[in-house]
Amino acid sequence: MPQKISHQTRNSEKDIAPAEIALSGFLENYINKCTPPMGWDKAKQIDFFELIGLIWESLEPCRQNIGKLLLTKPLEKSIECIDKEFKNLMSANRRELIKRCLRKRQELLIEAVTLVK
């Protein structure tokens, strides 16, 4: 029997109203909450993007897979999928928040990799 998903952990529609979506700080805080449950030698408090940068720098075999995340095409396809497949399941505001979040995360990934090149 499938478990019920708790809606208490999800943000309500009023929490992602257009005025809040426009606030870059709101999106920044949301993205910055994404932290890996691990550290790296001498870097105990790292965020997800710093971890990707360290992996890029230290583990050359992983670069090809990380590089795929930096391309524009997969991001565009993901955004198209969100609009097409979730149009009737999510409000336009929620979809816009997700798309902005994906764009910002890709931007931060590119920045993390560029900083260590």
Keywords:
6 helices, 117 residues, globular, mainly alpha
Account of the protein in words:
- The model is unreliable at 1-9 (pLDDT under 50).
- Helix 5 packs antiparallel against helix 6.
- With 117 residues, the protein is mostly helical.
- It has 6 helices and no strands.
- It has a domain at 46-117.
- The protein is globular and about 45 Å long.
How would the blueprint of this fold be written?
Blueprint: H1 18-22, H2 24-32, H3 48-58, H4 63-69, H5 72-85, H6 92-116
Helix pairs in contact: 3-6, 5-6
Following the backbone from N to C, one meets helices and strands in this order, namely: HHHHHH
Q: For the CA atoms, what is the radius of gyration?
A: 17 Å
The total count of helices amounts to 6
Assess the beta-strand content as a share of residues. Answer: under 5%
**Low-confidence stretches at least 5 residues in length (pLDDT < 50)?**
1-9
The number of distinct β-strands equals: 0
- How far is the first residue's CA from the last residue's CA? 49 Å
Largest sheet: none
Task: Tell me roughly what share of residues is in helical segments.
Answer: 55-70%
Q: What characteristic shape results from the CA principal axes?
A: globular
Average pLDDT, to the nearest integer?
79
Structural class: mainly alpha
